[in-house]
Structure formats: C-alpha cells, structure tokens
Amino acid sequence: MKWNHWSGFLTALTLCVFILTGTAFAAFPDVAAESPCASAVAEMEDQGLLSGYPDGRFYPARTISAAQFVTIAARCAGLEPVPAQTNHWAAGSLQAALQAGWYDWDELPPTGERFNLPIPRQLAVKILMRAFLPEVRGDYLTESRKINDFARLDGRYYEPVLAAYAAGVVTGDAQGNFNPTGSLSRGAACILFQNVLKASANGGQPAKTHESVPTPAPAVGTAQGGVSENGWLQVIGTQLCNEAGEPVVLRGMSSHGIQWYGQFASAQAIANTARQGANLFRVAVYTEEGGYLSNPDAIFQKAAAAVDAAIANDLYVIVDWHILSDGNPMTHLEEAKTFFTAMAERYKDSPAVLYEICNEPNGNVTWERDVRPYAEQVIPVIHARSPKAVILVGSSTWSQDIHLAIRSPLSGENLMYTLHFYAGTHGTELRQRLDEALKAGLPVFVSEWGTSRADGSGGVFLKESGEWLDFLAARNISWANWSLCDKNETSAALRPGTPPDKVWTQEDLSESGRFVFGRFR
Ligand code: DCB
Q1: Quick one: which atom of ligand 1 is closest to the CA of 359?
Q2: Is 107 an active-site residue?
C-alpha cells in the first residue's frame, strides 16, 4: 500500500468496520436483509459511497458500469477527483484512478467512451487489487487451478486475478468459473468491495468471505472433438477456440519426414491415429534432406494426400514447412511462398487446416532479424486466400525462443507461437518460458514434442513427458507428438517393422507410442 494512500486506507477501514458490523437495515426495499450484499449495500449507501435509483430501489441485479465502479473504489480509498478531459460526472475520479495506476489508459480511455459500459470482471478485480492490496501475489499453479475458465482470462490480468484468488477476494461461481469478461451486478460488486476491504484490514490474508471457496477445478472444460464438431478455429486471447468461441485442445501425432516415412502419413495410418482419440495430425514437409526442395511437385502431392486423409478422418491438420538443416527460414522464402500459396489455395474452404510456416529456425538466426520478417511475408500469402486460418510461427533455437517474440510480437488475427520440447532435454526452464509468453498474451501451440532427447533418441523419458503433458493440460495447450513412424529411435511411436496399412494393436506401438496414444483424450 502506498502511504500517500494511508488516509484512504483508514477511511476504507472505518468504512469496512461499518460494513462488517452495520445492521442490515432495509435501506432499499429490493435488497433483502438476508441477502449476502445487504449490509454492504446499506452501509455504503449510508456513507454516500453508493446510491440507489430515483424510485428508491437499489436494483442489486443491475449491471454496474465502469464509472460507478471506479467512483466507489475511489471513494473507499479516499482518492480525490482531479481535473479531467470530459465533463462526465465520474471523470474526475476516473482521472485520479488512472493517475494512481489502478488501470491503464486503454482499459478505460479518459476520453470517456467506455465510462458508461459494464466494467469487465477482470478489470474490476485488477482495480481493486491495485487500489487496496497492491503487495499481494498469487502462486500461478495454486491459484490458476481454482479457476475453471482460466484460459479465458486475458494475460494482462493474470497477476491481479491470481492475487485476488490468493487473498480470497474472488472465489468464482458455483461452476468454479471466474467469467473474466462478464459484467458484475451492483450487488456482486458490493461483495467484492467488502471482500477486498476485509482482506486489506487483514494485511492481505484471506478473510472469511460471503462466497465459499470452491474445490479446485478439475481439468478445464474443453471441447476435444474433430472438425465436424468444432468448425473453424479461432484464437481468443491466448486460447485456441472453436467456431463457437469455446476453448478447444488439439492433440495428435506429427508424421516423420514424409520423404522418408510417407507410408505412415497414409489414410490407414491416419485413421488408426484418429481411432486412438487424436483430433490432430501434422504433416512434416521437410524442405531440405531430400524433402520439398529436391522434388517440389511429388512432395506437394504427397503432403496434400496426407492432408486429405486427415480431413477425411475429421482431424485438424497442420501443414508444417519443416525447415531444419536450413536453419534460417529466409533461406527459402520464395519457395515457402510458392508452397503456401498452393496449399492455402487448395484448402481455403477447409476449417481443418492449420499452417506452420517454419518448423525450427536454428543456428545464426534471430527473431527480430529473420523469423519475424519471414513471418510477415508468409502470413499474408496464406491469409489472403484463407483469411480465417490459424497460422503457427516458430522461433530461433529450434522454436524455443518464444520469450524473444514477447518483445515484438506479430500483429494479426489467429496467430500462435510454437514451442517445441523434448522431455529428455527440456524441463522447468522452458516451461517457465511458456508461462512468460502466456502471461505476455502470446498464444502458444506445442506443434512438436518428443518423449526422447532433442536428437530424437535416448530414454524414453515418460515421467518427464507426463510432467510436460500435465502442465500443458492445465493450460489448455494443444500438441502434436514426434513422430508417427517405425524408425529405430525412441521417439518413434511404432515398433520397427510395423506395417502402416493395418489396424494397429498395442503390440505394434513402441513404449513412447503407448504412452502418447494414452494421452490423446
Ligand atoms: C527437431 C526436428 C525434427 C527432429 C526432432 C528430433 O529437431 F524438428 O525434425 O527429428 O526434433 O531431433 C529428427 C528425427 C531423426 C532425423 C533428424 C534429422 O527424429 O530421425 O534423422 O530429425 O532429420 C531438434 C529439436 C531440438 C533440438 C535439436 C534438434 N535441440 N535437431 O534442442 O537441440 O537437432 O534436429
């Protein structure tokens, strides 16, 4: 708490005592004495912090506007109005709140166009936490588990909302949802004020609140069906969503290089994968190492056949421009444009297809100088033909430098950043990077990961893989596993010699394959 707010704090404390001890006299005929907000409403009204409507009612179910909410917060904190840009009745208090750093300019522009709109719950909570409990922090894992719809939260509100859960200011609804972009009723706002003031008086420790803390939410409720169920995908905040705007998680297999293991990108192999519960397939179109650049027409046909087979099996499918030994995506920019022009033209009407424009930039490559400018040239080629398509973008160091993209993210719709990991090589540190990216508002897609070391062999590292998958599941992050083939390496999902054109049994799967197939659903 800033000590120039001491007087406000004391006012708030005094108010708080009133709220907590005040008799719930019937200040408003429409607020029942036993209603959880009754005492708060009555005392706040009595203190001139809140007013009813001219008909003498309070209308606790009505939506509270941004102006009403911030004005009450300012009064509670003893923040005096200052000169403002508009003559809106609340402009002075809102200007003072803005200057006190309770919210940012773009959240409620001082030009006033949002003052009378409902205040989104995530913004309301941020303002309360900044105003009354600025020192409180919430542990990401502990608190995010309490929030069933955590994936819907805008990244810029992670910190205050997690802190608010930690301090018991917010507890979510009966389903464990926070509903971050929803509005607040006037009655519910009073409860929030009461909770934050109590916690503040308690030194930031959770106080007993009117709402009971729900048990930690289980896995976040998501759709994991196929294309016919989910339709066109869209990215909302950091979350991949279906056409209806509901969070969706894609899980499935990546092919190995189709120039080598094209037989495992066959209709039967893909159908086998779908039958195991996957809703995603990734077609790895190597550029070098005997891939597309050696034989563009034949490889294009092979890739398109695999995409068609995935679509026929109701799977989402990633067309992956698999740069690898050509570390810099700029090296084959023109070929990439030609390839994606043809792919996007062919699949422009299919909601199933996602485009991954550079598998793993590596070597002497930077996000700023190489990957970002490359993406800025290739994305428009795709979006010009398929405007709604989700496009996945890699980063330097084999798509691990997602933290560098935070500083200069791409602009545009339906873009996601890939993060690749190998469980035998990468752990906590890379997971922290992923959280950093989410926190900064970057949507993340794990379009390739393996149970092995980063070279595709060693292990298998199933315990570490499990830690990764739990981590991804808790964040609703989609993934594709490397790889669906029978190569004699531990990351391969099939045992050496497994025929591609039969229905596989458990005996055909490698140790890695059994583990990964078991985690699709
Ligand atoms: C990625 C690549 C992928 C590669 C796997 C495993 O590379 F995207 O193409 O697959 O991760 O290394 C391997 C196959 C081998 C094949 C080889 C070359 O499994 O059968 O012979 O590609 O085509 C990564 C990922 C991370 C790191 C290094 C590589 N890393 N890498 O963090 O150091 O060197 O390929």
Answers
A1: 8
A2: no
